[in-house]
Structure formats: structure tokens, C-alpha cells
Fold these 4 entries.
Entry 1:
Amino acid sequence: MASLLHLASLPLPHHQSLPSLSPSSSSNTPSTSASATADFSRIQKLYPSFHRGRNCSLKKGLICRSSSSEVTFIEPPESKASKDDLIGSLKLKLLSAVSGLNRGLAASEDDLRKAEAAAKELESAGGLVDLSGDLDKLQGRWKLIYSSAFSSRTLGGSRPGPPTGRLLPITLGQVFQRIDIFSKDFDNIVELELGAPWPLPPIEVTATLAHKFELIGSSKIKITFEKTTVKTTGNLSQLPPLDLPRLPDSLRPPSDTRSGEFEVTYLDSDTRITRGDRDELRVFVIS
């Protein structure tokens, strides 16, 4: 019964204390056995849920396993429900931080810091992402709800792109990523509204930037650009799609903008966080 000393660390009701156990309490003499039996009876009165010979629950989340000769304690397993609650709370915090920022186009420096901090908390709670065995989690159509690079006020983010505002009458609509893990297709789909001279209505188009992707590591993805297709929508939806011609190799800029890499830093069934090769933070939700 020497292991009963472990109970000394537990809070006792009404400021009571456990019976003291002498060093000789581990012997098997009749007097010691009778004393140990009395001690056990007193412990049962203090902790009615404590019983000899079966599992039982004690205060402060400790789990007791006892037999006629010993009492041991183990820490309870981590509660899955509590982790799910934490993840849910951090996801809500991130979504709240990026809401109302027009996918990052309206983000201030303070907004960028808040979004970055909320994303790091969720990434830390979710742990490392390993796509080598869970590539199917990427499958689907994802909606972009935030990009830190859009705060640069260009539609290309950190890469070259048309500016927004008064210089060009371009209004950014929804942005999606369509990923097919079987064909390795990785399409960035951008909805745009192009201004037209009065009294003509704006022209609505959807631009699809088609890529192929490959996994290069446990969580890093490389995409290679193939072509851009533009399709009118709205009043001009009857027009056929148009594939934009690619520039000859001799006319392309020195930097290869046809490919890029990014890392998936958080992923579950409905939320994805990525960090690009140009320090771009992106947040997606399943669409």
C-alpha cells in the first residue's frame, strides 16, 4: 500500500488529510495489513468513487487503476473534443480577422498583422501538414477569401498584374482554385468586371488560368502554367471561350512566371491555408 502516498497530492474535502503511512507499511505483517485495510476504508469515505480492484475516476481528471496490492495513476488521453473546439475557435478567429477586407484588397497594415497572427495560431494548433498520404484532401473547388498580396493593390498580388482603382476599370469578383488530384489540374479561376464606355454595360468575364501541379515534399506544391481561357458571362454568355495566345519564349520576361511553389500549412475538410514562394498568405474555404 506504499503507493497510496500518491493520493497525498489530491485535494481532500473539508480540509481532511490522508492517514499517515509509516515506512513499514509495505510489510505483510498482520498489524500492517489491518492498518492498511483501515486506511483504505478511510480513503473510500473521502473519495466515494475510489474502489479497490477496478478502474475509477478521480478529481482533476486523473485516472486511477487499482488492485488489491497497488494504486497507480495515469494521465487521461487528450480529449479529441477539446482539440476540435480549439480548432473551431481559431478558425472563427481567422475568418473574423479577414472578413470585410475584400479578399485583402482593402487590408491595412494592421489588418495584415491581425490576419497573420490568427493564421499562425491555427497553423500551430493544426500541426504539420503531410499530403503524401492525404492528397485527396486537396480535391475540390476552393474559394479564396483572403490574400495578403492583394494589399499591394494589383490583381497579380506579389507578381506583376493589372492595378485596381481608377487607372483601369477592372473590378475583381470571386476567385477560386479548382484542383483535380487525378488529372493533376490546378486552375485559378478569376471573375472580373470590365468597364465599358457609357452607355454600354460592364463586361463580365471569367478568366481561367490552367496549371498542372505536382507534390514536391510532404506539403509543398509546384504549379506550372499552361494557358489562359477567357469566357464572357452575363449578357454576353453566348460567346465562345477564348484561349489567349502565349508569348514566344524570346519575348517572355527573364523571370519565369509560368511556374510557382507554395506550401500548404493548414488543411481540413473545409479550410486551407497556404504560404507562397513570395511570402503570400492565402486563406481558402471549400466551395
Entry 2:
Amino acid sequence: MTPRQRFFDCLQRSPPALFEAALWMCVEHDKEVNPAAVMTHFKDLQLRVSYGLPMLPVSELAQPLLRRLNDLGFAQDDFTPLRPQAALLDKVLERRRGQPLALGLIALELARGLEIPLVGVNFPGHFLLRVPGADHLLDPCGGRRLYPNDCRELLQRQYGPNMKISAEHLLTAEPVQMLQRLSRNLRQLHLSHDDYIGALIDAERVLELGNASASDYLARASLYQRLDCPNAERFDLEHALLLSDDPIQRIRLTERLGHLPPNSIVH
């Protein structure tokens, strides 16, 4: 099977193999990555984390787990501009620096192995974690507790004072949603470093995971434009047009389609 097929095979398991699926994403960008070897080394990390945890009920160990990871050097990558390695799990495990989502996926896999209850939350702009039933969220970058006011401040710090927090922002994230978010992050990081082929690999995965938005099709269309593939660009622009609810965007998409050469048929 190809790495993409193995990625989807992980999602078909019950429960889905979230961490392994994310590792197969790494293989798509670096054929030298060996997911089985990474997972073997990960067991060593799990032992080190477990050794440093306090003697508490498992329901109270999520925050100590995150603090233990931080003690071992895992922290948010603040390198500017952020590079793709901040979202590729094999590189994050090696460097101990990454985006909140990548650190969160590592914490979720550790929690799963140690039978500590913990779930992901697709909070806008900064992935978060939660112990089911708790009245607070946890920052995967160090384990800080975030109560409703903290979440509101975090949201407004990133999106401005007019951004309102909603219940949708606090929902538990399903594995597919987390991997789609990771794919979008990688798409943007590869694009920002002019790696259009790498970005295209991630853009395709975003769409294959389902429930893609107009902006997802538009993102891939822009990559095809940069790679001089007008037929593929037209296909994605037409799909973005069908999905868009924004009248201004629909006008711009129609104009952009009008500037493309007619569809050519290759024999």
C-alpha cells in the first residue's frame, strides 16, 4: 500500500489509529520515515513520562502528563517563520518543538497508552485538550488550565476583540477533524516555504478526508495555478464556486474562471 492508503487504513480501525495515521503523513513528505521505528522509540518516551507522574487517580493525571512533557523539553515552536517540521510528528518528536496540534497529538497518544482520559478540542487558532467532564481546557504547550474567560482572551488575542466564543469552538474533535486540521497546517507551512508539491500533497489529503470547504478547493486551485495546471485549477475553482455562500467571492471566482484557457483534452 502507498503511504496515503496506509493513512486511511489507520482511520478505518476501531478505534482509529490517530497517531500512526499522522506518522504516515510524515512518510508522504519523507520516504525515510519509518512509522514502526518511531512508535518503538515512542514507547521509551511513554516510560519516561510515566516514571515522572505523581500517584494520583488517572482522571487527575492529564495536567501532570503535559507538565512532564514540558519538563522533558517539549514546547511550542516559536521559530519565525514557522517551518513544516513544526507540524510533522517525526520531526516534533526529534526536536521537541512543534505547533500546539502536534504537541497535542503526542499528548493524546501518551494518554491513550497510559489510560489517562484526554480528548482534543479544535479551538480556533490554538489546539487545546480536555479531560472529559472537566470545567476547564488544557494547553498542550505546558499544561496551563484555561477557563471560559481564558479561552475568550485566547480567541480575541488571535482574531481581534470582535471575535465571539461559541459552543462550537469547544466541541471534542474527532480523529478525522484533527488530521484534517493538521493537513491544513502542513499545506500552509509548505506553501509559505514555496514547496508547492509538498503543499499539494497536503491539499489533496484535506479534500480526501471529506467535508472540504470552498477555501480548501480554492487553496488547491491556487497551487495548481502556481504549477501551471489550468485544467486542474478550473476543476477546483468550479467546486469552490458551488460551495461558496459569499456573493463577493462567487463573483471573483466567476471572473477568475473566465480568465482561464478553455478545457483541453489530452489524447
Entry 3:
Amino acid sequence: MRLTNLDMDALRSFAIGMEAGSFAQAADRLGRSTSAVSAQLKKLEEQAGVTLVRKAGRGLTLTDSGEVLLSYARRLLDLNDEAMSAVRGVELEGWIRFGLQEDFGETVLPEVLGRFARAHPKVRIEGRIARNSELKDRIASGHLDLALAWDDGSPFAATADRIAAVPLCWLGAAGREPAWLPDGREPLPLAALEAPCLLRTIACEHLDRQGLAWRIAFVSPSLGGLWAATAAGLGIALRTPVGRPQSIRQLEPRSHGLPDLPSLGLALFHAGKEPSPLTAHLAVIIRQALWETLPAEWLTQQAIERSPAA
């Protein structure tokens, strides 16, 4: 049996077209004509020997075979891009300093470090997990080359590449109702990180605006301690859903008398205006890991356009 090699350019056009919602938008992103992208899709269907998309009203929808191929296409494109980065960057040497929020330590960091180490085996990474204020201070002072941190929209001297808008939420112990009622008789117990803490400040400001009394019931220097206190029912916490343990659940604000919350920006902060090749490639890998980890509705349009399939 003769094996068929799928065309990588056609796969990329296929993946971008389905992510964008139309092959006309895919053509714009790729700098090609719509007819050229349509021809690539036809070529891909001929190679696969199946129909991949069908018309649905004014748009297109995937067939069952198309859904299967799209899943493989994303993985093939990721591997292709990683291989090309590794080949081109194998001779790069030096070291890079990278910092990130503790929220992403388990979900993103292992994947990022593994991909970068495979692509640049001669490069040393100095990693730091720290609080938001420390990360931004170290970027501003030049002690970090790149940092994944919360972006509250305040002016900042460094270059910020907004990746996502992550929803904030109130969190409580799973399997039990919070031992607090919004009747004004007892202040709301809060579990929070040590000050200064951006999310702690946001929690207090929103409670004050709604006229709710509160008290700091538990303070932790680490996210692990905060999760433990919240799971034990010592207080309600304000965080994002990222990295939330199963022992903690999201609380619906209105049914618990709590304020509605906004989303919080997530950005890559660069120490300089012109990042080095190493810093630029690490930023690409971080964006890829976040693109694979975070829900699509959280991602900014810029992040989607710079995703692995783009």
C-alpha cells in the first residue's frame, strides 16, 4: 500500500480556515487569494480521499472525517513548527530569564520549558515564579527578559503583548455552602495572598462598592496555602479559574450575594523594545502553550491570529 503524504501548506490553510470561520478570512491571514485556498482544500480532500467540509447556510461545517483530520492537522502543524524552530535554533547559545505567575506553574510551565529545551539545548533558562508586582518590577529593572503576568491596564514602561482576558471569579469549598450570608450581620471572610496583591485589591474594591462588610480571615504567602484555606472553608477567595483544584468550586455571584466581577488581562511583558531571538522564540512557545490550554473565548484576537495554526 502506497502511503500518502499530506501537504503541510494545505493543512495549515485548512486549520486556519476552520478557526477563522471562513476560507476567505484564512486567505487574508495567509496573504493568498480565496481561490488559491479553496484549491488547497480540494487538494487536501483528494489526498485524504474524503469530503472534509460541507455547506451549512452561508458558511461551512466539518464532516465527521473533517473533524478527525482537523485534530491531527493541529498536532502535525505544532510538531512541524517545533521541528523547524529546533533546526534553526540548535546553534543558539546563551541564557534567558523568564518569570510567571504561580497560577500557571503546573499548567503551562512544564510544557513551555520542555519545548524550549528541545529547540535550544545549548541555552540556559533562569526561571522565577513570583507575584505580579515582583514580576513587573523585575521586567522594568531588566532582571527578567520575559514575564507572563496579569495586566490590569495601568501604564507600564515595558512592552506588553496581551494574550487573553481571563474571567475573575469567587471561589469557595466544594461540597459545602459558604458559612456566610449576605445579611450584614457578619462580615464576609476572605482568604487572600499577602499584600500587595492585585486580586486581593480587586476583591476588596468590589465588595466596598456593593457595600458588603468583609474581613481578612486567612493570609498566605503562596497560592498553595490559599487553595488549602479555601478548600477548608476558612474563607472565600477571588482568583481566576486557572489551576483551580477540584476541592474548590466557583460561586455564582448573585445567588451568594456577591458582586459580579470583570475579566483580567493576561500579557507577556518584554524587558526591551526589540527582544532577542531567544526571547522572541520563548514568547512564541508560551503563546502556543496558552493557546492550547486556555478556552478560545478568553483569547484576544491578536493571540488567535498568532496561534500555532496561524
Entry 4:
Amino acid sequence: MAGNCCASSTCSSTQAIPPSYRRALWIALAVNLAMFGVELSAGWGADSASLMADAVDFFGDAANYAVSLLVLSLGLVARARTALLKGLTMGGYGLYVLSQAAWNGWIGAVPHAETMGVIGVIALVANLGVAVLLYTYRSGDANMRSVWLCSRNDAIGNVAVLLAAVGVFGTGTAWPDLIVAVGMAMLGLSAAWQVIGQARRELATVEPRVQFG
């Protein structure tokens, strides 16, 4: 049955994947792993929920890029199933960030605005570079779309972290940091909903052909 699927135009192979996309994923993977280490240490040291959220996001994106590289040689069904799993992971990330923000609000920790600002700028530059690399592939299948949404959300999140740093510096409270962390969580949940929806539509279109083709 798998042979029937891959014999049709609906089951893509590596020939349908541009080599430039694979290279872009490798670069994105390296950048995200490096920034995960930077933001993780900075977030803990600065008591910043938004930096910690961004660090977890970097790690999640690195994992997503690695998974995407593994499934490039597989058909559309496998890539759609992978995208479905990634969408669920993105949703789990959003829920984690919400709980982290709630905890920081409960203990009343005030983050270091200066550290937030410096790390936020570095992360923004890194994510803009990755977003530019992946922009061309934003309208591909569910797997490609999930990768693009991750890079887009990262850049938006970095701008939000910078705004939070300004807010923390100006008010001397943790509320700007917590508000941004919650906003990043909601953005992650929204992206997860989009990826899961597209992956389910692709599976609904292809899997009947796999079963009865």
C-alpha cells in the first residue's frame, strides 16, 4: 500500500525538496541550539520568564528542525504525521510558558532588565537570519509551514522580550515580563492550532488513498 501512495503525485519524495531547504534547516538547527544555551543561562540568571520562555522555544525549534531533516526523505503522509506531532509539541510549549509565568508572578521575582535587553537583541538578530532563510518555504506542506511558523514566532517573541525589558526597566516590576511571556504562550498555541489543522487536512486527503489505492 505504501508503494501505491509513493507512486502517485500526492506522495512527495526527496526529489520534491529543494537542496537549499535542507541547507537552511541545518543552519537553523545550529543557530537555535547555540541560542538555547545562551538564553537558558541568561534567563536563569536574570529571573526572566520571557527569556526562559524564549530559551525553551529555541530548544523546541532545534528539535523541530532536526525532525524535519529526518523526514525530508519520506512521503507526504509521514511528513504530515510529523507535523501533527510538532503541532502538539508547540501547544505543550505554550502551556509550559503559561505555567512558568504564573510561577514567577506568584513568587514575585523581578527580572534584570539590562540582561533581558542585551540577550533579546542577540536573539532577534539570530532569529531574523533564520526567518529570512526559511521565508521562501513558508507556503509548503504542513511540515514546511510548521518550520516557518516557528521562525516567525521566534522573531516576534524577541521583539516582545525587548519591549518587556523596557517595561521592567521603567516600572521596576515583573509585570511587563509576565505579560510578554503570556503573549508568547498564546502565540505558540495559535501556531500549534494552525499546524495541527493543516496536518489533519493533509492526512485526510492522502490516507484514504494509502488505504484503498
